[in-house]
From TrEMBL, chain A:
Organism per entry: Nisaea acidiphila
Protein name in UniProt: Glutaredoxin
InterPro entries cross-referenced by the UniProt entry: Glutaredoxin, GRX_PICOT-like, Monothiol_GRX, Monothiol_GRX-rel, Thioredoxin-like_sf
Organism lineage: Bacteria, Pseudomonadati, Pseudomonadota, Alphaproteobacteria, Rhodospirillales
Gene: grxD
Membrane spanning stretches: none
Residues binding [2Fe-2S] cluster, per UniProt: 32
Stored NCBIfam families: Grx4 family monothiol glutaredoxin (TIGR00365)
Family in the record: Belongs to the glutaredoxin family. Monothiol subfamily.
From TrEMBL, chain B:
InterPro entries for this protein: BolA, BolA-like_sf, BolA/IbaG_stress_morph_reg
Family: Belongs to the BolA/IbaG family.
Pfam families per record: BolA (PF01722)
SUPFAM superfamilies in the cross-refs: BolA-like (SSF82657)
PANTHER family assigned: BOLA TRANSCRIPTION REGULATOR, BOLA-LIKE PROTEIN 1
Identification of the protein by name: BolA family transcriptional regulator
Length: 115, 77
């Protein structure tokens, strides 16, 4: 169930930071392979992101699924837009779409477009 | 909790009768699958929409019984 308070907290997070990753665990200590994979891609691309550990907050853990109509975690938001979960991020990275999207949205990345 | 590969395929084909479904049991433990779905129903949809359509076909099992399902979708070439 997604209550108004939780919805507002999620909304505030994605409003206040350009790149937000809802994940299980932390970037240093991910507690799920899918979360680890997305952290790996974001780190490789060299984009700064804020991570939110849903394991520390049961309301967000369940609420985020309803918020985005997406049944799994991790979930990546860029400039207020839900980009996808692990499979989509991985696929977008492999096809170059991820860098293109980040560039289009004006997000700083640390590696060139040839990557 | 786990789910049979055949059951995943059945649910997907029930919603997308034309779908070409490939399921790989990644670890042989009946709990970690990679699933590739090609269907004309995905034409004109974004990736997120395509995945959401498959999740809908799985009737709420994604994220519960199915934690480890790597999904790829596309249209038949």
């Amino acid at each position: 169930m997604l209550d108004d308070n939780t919805r507002q907290r999620i909304q505030d997070e994605i409003d206040s930071t350009d790149v937000v990753l809802f994940m299980k665990g932390t970037p240093v200590f991910p507690q799920c392979g899918f979360s680890a994979a997305v952290v790996g891609v974001l780190s490789h691309v060299g984009v700064k992101f804020k991570s939110i550990n849903v394991l520390e907050d049961p309301a967000v853990r369940e609420g985020i699924k309803e918020f985005s109509n997406w049944p799994t975690i991790p979930q990546l938001y860029v400039k207020n837009e839900f980009v996808g979960g692990c499979d989509i991020i991985r696929e977008m990275y492999e096809t170059g779409e991820l860098l293109e999207m980040l560039n289009t949205k004006g997000i700083d990345v640390q590696i060139g477009e040839e990557a | 909790m786990a789910m049979e590969a055949g059951e995943i395929e059945r649910l997907i084909k029930e919603t997308f009768p034309d779908a070409e479904v490939t399921i790989e049991d990644l670890r042989g433990d009946g709990d970690h699958y990679a699933c590739h779905v090609l269907s004309s129903a995905f034409e004109g949809k974004t990736r997120i929409q395509q995945h959401q359509m498959v999740y809908a076909a799985l009737q709420g099992r994604m994220g519960t019984e199915l934690h480890a399902l790597a999904l790829q979708t596309g249209t038949p070439s």
